[in-house]
Amino acid sequence: MAMRLLMGWRCSPRWRAAIAVRHRALSTQPSASSAAPEQRMARQLQPTEIRATPRLPTRCLLQPDENDAWKIVTAEHLEHAELPADWLEQLDALQERIGVRFRDVTHLQTALIHHGALAQLRLPSDVATQRLSNRSLEFLGDSVLGMAVASHVFQSQPRFQEGQLTRFKSILVNNDTLSKVAVHDLQIDRVILVARDYSLACAPQDQRLFDKGRKTIQAGAVEALIAAVYVDQGLETALAFVNDVILPSAIKYATVEHTFQAVVELQNLLQAHGYGHPRYE
User: Fold this and answer.
1) At 149, phi and psi to the nearest 5?
2) FRET pair for 140, CA 20 to 30 Å: which of 1, 59, 90, 222?
3) Set 138, 142, 185, 232: catalytic member
4) Residue 119: which pLDDT band, with cuts at 50, 70 and 90?
5) 173 near 250, Cβ under 8 Å?
6) Which intervals hold domain RNase III (predicted)?
7) 142 catalytic, yes or no?
C-alpha cells in the first residue's frame, strides 16, 4: 500500500525508479526480526568494546592470513550462490592480467561483489553479508593504497610542502583516476558483480549521476582488490602490487589540470616567504 502511495506522488522518474529498485531489493531479503544477528543493522559501537579489542601480534598485521579470527566468509558460503556461469573463468583471467595468483580465491571473489548484488545471489541465511560484499575490503584497501602512494609521493618529491603532497596523493587515488585504472588497465569492470537493476535507478536525464556512481563502484573495486591481495598474501606483496601495477597506471592518468590549484599555490608561495595568508578584497 505504501509503495503504491509513493509511486503516485509527482516525483521525478529517477526517484520513482530508485524507489522501485529499493522495494524489490527489500522484498527479497528477510526482515530485521527474522534475519541472522550478523545481517541486522549495525548498532552503535560502545566505548567498552573499543577498549576490550584484543591486541594483535605484529605478524598478523604483516600477514593477515595467519589470523583466522576475521575469516567469517569461506568458499562454502559461495557454493550455492547464483553466480554468473563464466565468472570463475573471468577471475582466472584477471589473475593472469594482474600477475597475482590467489591462494584463496574467496578473497578475490568478495573483492568483486558489490553490496547491491547480494540480494540477487540468493545466499544462505547464515552468510555474514557485511564481509561477503566488498565494502570491508574497500575500507582496508583504501588505507593500504594510501600508505603506498603517500610513501611514494613523500620520497619522490622531497621539496614539496604538506599541502602539495596531499594534493599529489589525492589525484593519484581519487575515484576518477582509479576508475580509469579499473577499466583500461585491470579491466575489472567486466567482472564486478552489481545489482541487475542498477541502471534503472538513474533516468536518462541523470547520466552524470549514473556515471559518478559507476566510477565510485569501479574505484572501490580497485581498493578492494588491493585489500584482497593484502589479506591473501601479506603486506609486502600488496605494496608491490600497488607499486608495480596500480601506481604506474594512476600516474599515467593523472594530469596537471587536476593537480594545479591557483589559490592554494598562491597561499603556499606567500607562506613559504613569510608573508602569511593572503587577504582578498
Assistant:
1) -70, -40
2) 90
3) 142
4) confident
5) yes
6) 91-234
7) yes
